[in-house]
Design goal:
single chain, about 100 residues, mainly alpha, 3 helices
């Protein structure tokens, strides 16, 4: 996907979510302290993850193993996740067949 599309979606989705929430409040959906507490908990958890994930990535790029390991431990695992690349050419699942559709 192009970087322009991704950056547009990352801007548009929070705006649409905020607009939908404001419509819900105007429609009479009550937001009590329990709901606010749940939302704040989720926001803080996301902020915690992002902070230490960014530090982990910075440690990787700066070859700072100590920073990378510390951030990783605070995320629950000392090493960052590794995902297979799409270019790895994973074999098809056993028992499946793929046919070309013309």
């Amino acid at each position: 996907m192009s970087a322009l599309f991704i950056s547009t979606m990352r801007t548009a989705v929070p705006l649409v979510a905020g607009w939908l929430l404001s419509l819900a409040v105007q429609a009479g959906v009550g937001i009590d302290s329990t709901t606010v507490t749940g939302a704040v908990t989720v926001v803080l958890a996301i902020a915690y993850y992002l902070l230490f994930r960014v530090l982990e990535l910075a440690g990787t790029r700066l070859r700072g193993t100590a920073l990378q390991n510390l951030a990783g431990v605070l995320l629950g695992w000392a090493r960052p996740p590794r995902y297979p690349s799409v270019d790895d050419g994973l074999p098809p699942l056993a028992g499946t067949s793929y046919t070309s559709v013309s």
